[in-house]
Amino acid sequence: MDSMEIDDNLYITKHLTMEGLVTKVDFQRRKQPSRCVTVCLGLLCAVLLAGNIGQFIYYEIISPLASADPTQASLQFPGDRLQDCYDASTAERKQLEAKLSNLTEEKGQLQQSYTALTTERDEFKTSFNNLTNENNQIQASYSTCKQESDQLQTSYNNMQKSLEELQASHNNLRATKDQLQTNNRNLQREKDEFQTLSISLRANRDQLQSNYFSLKRSKDQLQISYNTLSIRKDDLQIRYNLLTDDKDRMQSSYNSLQNEKEELQNKYNSLVKVKDVFGKDINKVRGKPCERGWIRFHISCYFVSTSQRNWASSRQDCIARGADLLIIDSREEQAFINGILPSRKQFWIGLTDSVTEGTWMWVDGTPVTTTYWYPGEPSNSGGKEHCGETWQRSSGIGVWNDDQCANLQHFICEK
Ligand SMILES: [Ca+2]
Ligand SMILES: [Ca+2]
Ligand SMILES: [Ca+2]
Q: Can you give the residue ranges of the C-type lectin domain (predicted)?
């Protein structure tokens, strides 16, 4: 059990020593010395016993056989042989006695050594117990250290990984550094070039700055002129737009007037022709007198009735006379008619809005352009007044009124 513990301790100590945790301790001294002495004595006795057996066999069996030559045997006496054996045995005994004496001395010495070793063994035993306790403590420390070692190993592994990562980062940084160094050299070269260019550009800049100030003054002046011109341009643009609009309107009016002028010119030409034709006829008509009871004015003849009829019957009477109800073509005709009528009487004329209320038409289908309505007329009183009449007035040229067509009135025919 002790030997096993010592061997374990040897192994542990060796292991710890290899790991550098404890200093080397010589446990060889702690083996039991009594066992060593016993073993040594046993071995020595066995060697002596083997030597005696060997001598006996040699002198008693082998030597007589070797000297059994028939020639010599015949010459030697049996007493000599015994004397030789006795001498040899005596010498051998002396040797054995000397060896026994030596062995006795050695045994005494060994006994002393055994006693000393026993004492030393007890001391070692005590030391061993102490060392066992220390070993337990060391074992506990070892376990603690083992755990710490495991932790340190884990930390070491982590550190190793970190180191590898750092190494990779280092390599990357080195590559980056090399690249940056290359870039730095390139930048340095470019910097030198830029410095040269900078000096040149600085001179150009000064020149340009001088030019810039000069141009800035010119630009300010031009800006003032531009602003003034811009305002004038805006005014002119507004005026231009107005003039353009006026021009467009005038152009449109001009075109309309041109068309109207052409139409009027055509009408004028037609009228001139008609006038020429009618002028000849008028001259012929003017020279011809109206029928009895009719009154001439220009180219027309007028009949003023003495009887009273409604508007439709009056017209039928005029048509029967080869004429129609009076159509007022001019202010002169209105004034002429007012002059030939009895004082303050009303007479039907060829005027009606029976087709469309409020739209007055002459009996020949022409629209009424010039009117002489009395103030407040046409009143269409009761919604029943659809025929026109003229009132004679002593002053002026007479006035018009609308009245119910069924009323009986005097009337005026014209042909
Ligand atoms: Ca007329
Ligand atoms: Ca009416
Ligand atoms: Ca009326």
A: 297-414
Q: What is the pTM of this model?
A: 0.37
Residue 7 has pLDDT above 50, yes or no: no
> What pLDDT score does 18 carry?
47
**387 C-alpha to ligand 2 centroid (Å):** 7
Q: What is the mean pLDDT of residues 278-286?
A: 66
CA distances (Å), origin 262, targets 27, 153, 180, 258, 279 = 151, 121, 94, 6, 24
* Residue 10, pLDDT score: 46
Ligand 1 ion: nearby residues, β-carbon < 5 Å: 327, 329
Q: Is the pLDDT of residue 339 over 90?
A: yes
pLDDT in tens, 98-137: 888 888 888 888 788 888 878 887 886 888 788 788 878 8
**For residue 24, what are its two tokens?**
């080397």
Give the residue numbers spanning the domain of 77: 2-169
Is 248 within the bounds of a domain?
A: no
346 CA from centroid of ligand 3 (Å): 12
Residue 15 has pLDDT above 50, yes or no: no
- CA 350 to ligand 2 centroid distance, Å: 14
Residue 260 lies in a domain: no
- Residue 399 CA, ligand 3 centroid: distance in Å: 11
404 alpha carbon – ligand 3 mean position (Å): 8
Residue 22 reports pLDDT greater than 50? no
Most confident listed range (59-68, 248-257, 317-326) = 317-326
Helix (H, G, I), strand (E, B) or coil at 289: coil
Domain end, chosen from 110, 141, 169, is at: 169
- Total Cβ atoms within 10 A of residue 278: 13
Ligand 2 mean position to 383 CA, how many Å? 6
Q: Are strands 346-356 and 410-414 parallel, antiparallel or unpaired?
A: parallel
pLDDT at 276 over 80: no
Contact 390, 399 (CB under 8 A): yes
Q: C-alpha distances in angstroms, 52 versus 65, 96, 105, 366? A: 20, 9, 20, 192
**Distance from the CA of 401 to the center of ligand 2, in angstroms?**
10
Q: Which residue has the tokens 């006026």?
A: 246
Query: Do 300 and 155 fall into the same domain?
Result: no
Measured in Å, residue 26 CA sits from the centre of ligand 3 at 162
Query: DSSP for 341-404?
Result: SPTT-EEEEEEEEEEETTEEEETTSPBP-S--BPTT----GGG-EEEEEEE--SSTT-EEEEEE
H or E element that contains 302: strand 300-304
